[in-house]
Amino acid sequence: MRILVTGAGGQVGREILAELSRRQDQVAHGSRLEVVATDHAHLDVISRDQVMAAIVQLEPDVVIHPAAWTAVDACEEDPAKAYAVNSLGTRHVAEAASLVGAHVCYLSTDYVFDGTLERPYTEWDRPNPQSVYGRSKLGGERELAPEATIVRTAWVCGRYGTNMAKTVLQLAGDGGVLRFVADQEGSPTMADDLAGVVVRLALERRRGIFHVTNQGSTSWFGFARAVLELAGEDPGRVEPIMTSELDPPRAAPRPANSVLDNTALALAGDPLLPDWRDSLGRLVADLRA
């Protein structure tokens, strides 16, 4: 089986490559996984010509497509680029994949929702994005064939790239009080946990939308306290603030409720990811090692 991974240099893309590498020894006798990794420098999804050439020449069986522009506030200030990468770029991937019969697995986001529900969002709730980033990612979802896999996730942290777990640890090292918002609720998701499910759904060619997060939820205030506690620091250094108190204010609106219920996985009898606290403990230990 030949697998093409876009955005392979990102925090989720790198974990997807690691998961595929682990699976090399688990494939059936006489078969193997051939993985081709591409990052922005080698495959710019904005370029239809590049995408068509890469996929048509490679003829992959599966395309795992985490490549995206995820700088939420920057997307708000440059919507043309956001739509070019997240929406049009996904159109190019879907078009090329259809020519060679490749299954596409696309990573999407909690930002497709407006965050106003008082319960976790299921896969069948109506999207209503409030930011350019969310609208551009929903645009990408709508470019895909019904047979594609769409994985929505939230609050991703991992060993690579920039994320909130790393930010909290860095700020903790500077000393003083840390202030994090207490009026945004979400499901922290560790990138390596996420990658395992993404790869499984992609290789099994599971069609439709799946919410994939670690179990449980918290606020960014609660998350920051947990990071400090797991790092052996004083969680009392973290103080709660409201989103309206952020200085400077953020350009893009954040959903107040980003909790995604993994309903499709649960109803199908698929195993759910561990509680976010358990996986965060492993991540903090890795980052502090």
Can you walk through the features of this model?
It is a single chain. The strands form four sheets. This protein has a six-stranded parallel β-sheet, with helices on both faces. It has a three-stranded mixed β-sheet with strand order 11-8-13. A two-stranded parallel ribbon has the order 6-9. The model has no long low-confidence stretch (mean pLDDT 96). The chain has one domain (2-162, 189-215, 259-274): NAD(P)-binding Rossmann-like Domain (Rossmann fold). Helix 5 links the parallel strand 4 and strand 5. The protein is 40% helix and 16% strand. The chain has helices spanning 11-23, 48-58, 72-77, 79-100, 132-142, 164-173, 191-203, 220-230, 263-267, 276-288, and strands at residues 2-5, 34-37, 62-65, 103-109, 149-153, 156-157, 178-181, 185-186, 189-190, 208-211, 218-219, 238-241, 257-258. Helix 1 (11-23) packs across helix 7, helix 2 packs parallel to helix 4 and helix 4 (79-100) packs parallel to helix 5. It is of the alpha/beta class.
